[in-house]
Amino acid sequence: MSLTIPDELVKASGLSEIELLQELILVLFQQDKLSLGKASELLGMSQIQFQRLLAKREICVHYDVAEFHQDIEHLKAKGWL
Predict the structure, then answer these.
(1) 37 CB neighbour count, 10 Å cutoff
(2) Which of 32, 8, 13 is nearest to 23 (CA)?
(3) How far is CA 62 from CA 10, 34, 69, in A?
(4) Which of 18, 32, 39, 42 is the most buried (most CB within 10 A)?
(5) In terms of C-beta density within 10 A (0-12 exposed, 13-18 middle, 19 or more buried), how is residue 35 classed?
(6) Where are the domains of the chain?
(7) From CA 50, how far away is CA 2, in angstroms rounded?
């Protein structure tokens, strides 16, 4: 599924498209809708880079056992484990 964000919303936010995507992903991560691994993947960052972004924004890393297992499965699916 693709999401189209109207140009008017992008202009009104004062953010670039990439910055707006980053904000959306950060909010979804904060609300436990995305795992650390998936959020970093969607932003094209390593998990360390994403954790640095979280630290810069003073957003806590809420990483539990279920997310750990999710990330392991994700890494296996990518062939990285």
Answers:
(1) 20
(2) 13
(3) 29, 11, 14
(4) 39
(5) buried
(6) 7-77
(7) 23
